[in-house]
Amino acid sequence: MDVERANKQITCLTFRLGDELFGLNTKNVVQISEMRTIRKVPGSAEYITGKIHWNAKQIIVLDTRKRLGLSGESATPYSSIIIIKANNREPEEKYFGMIVDMVEEIVDIRSFNIHPVPSSGIRFRSGFIANIAQWKESYIMMLDTEQLITNNQKDKYKSQINQLAFINN
Q1: Domain assignment of residue 157, given as a range
Q2: Is residue 113 helix, strand or coil?
Q3: What is d(CA 61, CA 153) in angstroms, rounded to the nearest whole number?
């Protein structure tokens, strides 16, 4: 095994959606916020819960369960909104929120414990999963935050998300 690869690691924020454990690379996470009033956006996609006021900006909030094709309640007493910086390649900073059932912890995962997504056997929309990480006795599905907001596979709401997600008024 390549020693350099074995020593590399990513820091990941883990959270739950139902019984499933998911993760986000912390370089994309800006803040964890408690649930708050979310204003509906008329005519928006079913997985867009609405908008919130955050740091003098209006940002779109996704129902992460619906976006991934999972069933169940969108918000629980332990739910939080994770604020994500979208598209690190653009000069203008853009953000969106994700509702999650419960934030777990921040973990460091060595690169040799990160594996490709299997081509079958995943019960939700796997296009949003970047890879799967083995951590302790669990597997963490690492989300691709950019795909959550842009990978719509001919989704009729693609332009709507791009427009609504980043309105600053």
Answers
A1: 3-164
A2: helix
A3: 20
Q: What is the β-pairing status of strands 20-25 and 48-54?
A: unpaired
CATH of residue 104's domain is 2.40.50.180
Contact 63, 50 (CB under 8 A): no
Provide the 3-class DSSP secondary structure of residue 82.
strand
Looking at the structure of the chain, the number of domains it has is 1
Q: Which residue has the tokens 């009729």?
A: 156
Residue in the block written with tokens 């996609």? 45
The first and second tokens of residue 104, run together, are 């777990």
What's the one-letter identity of residue 20? E
Q: pLDDT truncated to tens, each residue of the chain (169 aa)? A: 454 555 689 999 999 998 899 999 999 899 999 999 999 999 888 889 999 999 999 999 999 999 988 887 777 889 999 999 986 566 677 899 999 999 999 999 999 999 888 776 666 666 788 899 998 888 999 998 888 877 443 344 444 445 554 444 4
Per 3-state DSSP, what percentage of the chain is helix, strand, and coil (rounded to 5)?
A: 20, 45, 35
